Amino acid sequence: MTPRITVTSRLRNLVLPARPDPARSRRIAEVRLVVSAVVVLAVFAAIAARVMLLATDEANARTAGIVPPPKAERGQILDRKGRLLATNLPITVLHADPSEIMDPAAAARALAPLLPRHDEGALARLLTKDTRYVELDRKLTPARHAEILNLGIPGIHFRKSTLRAYPSGRLAAHILGQVDPDNNGLAGVEKSLDARLASGDDVTLSIDAGIQAIMAREINKQIHIFEAIGGAGVMLDISSGEILALVSLPDFNPNHFGATDADTRFNRATLGLYEMGSTFKVLNTAMALESGTTTLDRRYEVARPLRIGGHRIRDYKVYDWPLTVPEILVLSSNIGSARMAAEIGAEIQKTYLRRLGMFERLPIEIPETATPLVPRSWRQSEIATISYGHGISVTPLHLASAVATASGSGLWTPPTLLRRQPGDEAGRQQPVRQKLFSEDTTRAVRSMMRLVVKHPKGTGKKAEARGYMVGGKTGTTEKIRPEGGYYKDRNIASFAATFPVHDPRYVLVVMVDEPKGQKHSYGYATGGWVAAPAARHIIETAAPLLGIHPVDEKAPEIRQKLRLDFKIGKEEKTLASF
After folding, report:
1. How many CA atoms lie within 13 A of 133 on its CB side?
2. Cβ count near 291 (within 10 Å)
3. Could you tell me the fold of the domain covering 212-574?
4. Beta bridge partners of 163
5. Could you tell me the residue ranges of all domains in the chain?
6. Which is deepest, 315, 362, 396, 481, by most CB within 10 Å?
7. How far apart are CA 462 and CA 528, in angstroms?
8. Is the pTM here over 0.90, yes or no?
9. Is 248 a catalytic residue?
10. What φ, ψ does residue 493 adopt, rounded to 5°?
11. pLDDT in tens, 144-167
C-alpha cells in the first residue's frame, strides 16, 4: 500500500502543485523588477550616450576649421633677474555661429544686457552675418559666463583661450611691444621673437626692470620740468653690449593698446633719428687720436669763426687762445672740432663711423629700428659739421653704442636686448667684436670726459654724482625742419656718460626732445641744464643696484687710471685731481 500512495501523491503534486509561500514570491518579484529596471535604464543610457556622441561629432564636424584651433601657451618674457614682464591669463571667449541662431533678434535682446561692448542692434547685425564664426567677447567673468550659459541660446558657444598680460604696465612697453587678440606679435620683442614665444619658449631680456623704472622716472621729471614733448634714454653694458635699460617717453600701457596713439607708440630710443650735437666730439676726438692726425698737446686756433664753403662755424663762447685737444672737448669748441676733422679727412671719418655702426640699423631684437641719415656727398662742410654732431642723424642707441666703444675697451660690440650669459642660449652665440681704438686712446678720451663733468669750465658739471666717477659730454642741437633748415626755438638736449670712468662698465645716454628754458635755468634748455641732471640722478640711484660703490677719486689707484696732467683754460692751471 505504501508505494501506491507515494506514486499517487507525486502525480497529484504535479497536476495540482502546492500553493507557494506569499513572502517568498514577493521577494522573487522584487528582485526581478529591480533587474528589469536596471537593464532598461542601461539600454536608454547607452542610446542617449550614442545620440550625444553623434550630435557632438556632427557639431565638431560643422565647426571644424571655423573656430580658431588652440595654440601652445605663449612663452613668458622676463627681465635679467627673472622678474615677469609678460605672461598669460586664462580667459573664456564667447562666440556665435550665426547659421545656428534660430531667432537673432531674440538672441540679441537676451545677450545685450550681459555684453557691454555691444548694444542690441550691433548684436543683431553680428548674429545675422554670413559666416560661421563671430566673436562676441573675450573677457567673460565667471558670473557672466554662467548667466549666458543659462540662457540656453542655440548657436552661442564658449572656448578657452589666454590673454597676454603685462604685469608692470608701462614699464618697458616699447621693448615688449604687443600682441593681437589671437596672441600674434605686433611690435617689439613680441613681434621679432614671435615664433620662439609662440612655441612656448620663455625669453630672458638684458633689461633690468629696476634700472628701467629709475631711468623712466628721472627722464620724465625733466620732461615735465622743462615742458618738453618727449625724451629717451639708454644704458648699455660696455663689455657685453647688453642693454640694461631703454626708455622712450611718452610711453603707453600695453595692456590697453587700443587706447594709445602714434606718438606714444613711437620709440624715440631706437626709431627716432636726431642730430646729437656735441656728444659726437667724443667720437671725433677718438678718431683723431687713433688715426694719428693729432696729439693731446696739439693746439688749434679758434679765436675767429671758421668759414667752410657756405658755412660759418662759430663757438658758443669766444676763446682767444689756441686750444689743445682736451680743451676742445672740455670747452666744447665747434671750431676746434672742425679743424681736427679736416685733418682726419673724409675717408677715415667715414670708415670709423661705418665701423661704429652709424651707417646701418642696429641688430637689436625689436623691429622698430632706424637707419641713420648720413650725407650723400662727403665734402669739407660735411666733414666739419659731423665732427660736432650736425649733418648726421642717429638714434640714441647708436650714440650709446659708439660712445661705449670710444670710452671703453675700444671694441665695438653689437648691442642686444637679450641677456648674454655663459650657459644660456644667447650666451652660446658670442657677438662679433671689432677693435677700433687702443687703450691709450680710450684712456685719454675717458680722462677728458671726466674733465667735462669735474672741471669748473666743463659743460657737464650738473652730471657730477659724487664718488661714482662720471665722465660725459653734453649736446645741444636745433631740430631739423621737415622742409629743410633748422628750428630756432626747438632743441634736442642730450648727455652721454661713461661710469665709473676710471674702470668703465656702463654708458648712459639721456635725450630730451624740445625742452623749454625755465626761470631756474636762466632761460637755457641745453644738454648741460636738462639732460645732465637726469644722468646724475639715474647714476646715483642705479649704481648701487649694479654693484658699483662710491670711491675716493683722490686715491692713488684711481688717479693711475686717468690722465691728470691736462691743462684747461687760458691760465693753464694744472688740476690737482678730477
Report:
1. 11
2. 16
3. Beta-lactamase (3.40.710)
4. 89
5. 89-100+107-163, 212-574
6. 396
7. 7
8. no
9. no
10. -105, 125
11. 999 999 999 999 999 998 899 999
